[in-house]
Design goal:
Length: 199
């Protein structure tokens, strides 16, 4: 079986990011974005998707976290797209309802080559600690756009903003895990009647 791993480096005037992914990993992560809460969320993404992710990011945190979070989503998305190649043999679709204490969030994914995000998540506070809650959406928008996936995230209910954010990352992680699993019934086929998942 071909290796499904990739590395991406991205440098702008705002951020400098290097990321490596192994889709067939064990969920090992090494995150260093300079944003503590974000690293915690990225650890959840790696652990529950079983995608090994190593991330080193330096950004203009003296301004705010926005560029670092968004550009990290871009880089991880690009690395996933590169690792998946033609997307042969993947299950392609997955949907997960994920509970955490009082919170329930659904993530549904189509690894389609056509990027789209539907975001039905609301936070009751603009901050989780020092982290801007609006950046959760910005991360997933960048991830979906650059990985070439259709992603729908819906928070059904929840009271604690940390839990709401964490269930978003965990639900997407689990959906990615199932959607990217190799299909034993068609290990070399592109799962599309078009014969292509390049958009």
């Amino acid at each position: 079986m071909a290796s499904r791993s990739a590395e991406v480096s991205r440098k702008t005037k705002e951020t400098e990011i290097s990321v490596s992914v192994d889709v067939d990993g064990t969920g090992k992560s090494d995150m260093s974005s300079g944003v503590g809460f974000f690293d915690h969320m990225l650890d959840q993404l790696s652990r529950h998707s079983l995608i090994d992710i190593t991330l080193k990011a330096k950004g203009d945190l003296h301004i705010d976290d926005h560029h670092t979070v968004e550009d990290t989503g871009i880089a991880i998305g690009q690395a996933l797209a590169k690792a998946l190649g033609e997307r042969r043999g993947i299950m392609r679709y997955a949907s997960v309802d994920l509970a955490m204490d009082e919170t329930l969030t659904r993530a549904a994914i189509d690894v389609s080559g056509r990027p789209f995000l539907v975001w039905n998540v609301a936070f009751s506070s603009p901050k989780i600690g020092t982290f801007d809650t609006e950046l959760v959406r910005e991360f997933f928008q960048a991830l979906a756009q650059n990985a070439g996936i259709t992603l729908h995230v819906t928070n059904h209910y929840g009271a604690n903003n940390h839990h709401i954010a964490e269930t978003c990352f965990k639900a997407v992680a689990r959906a990615l895990r199932f959607a990217l699993e190799r299909d034993p019934r068609q290990p070399e086929a592109v799962p599309s009647t078009k014969g292509s998942l390049k958009g």
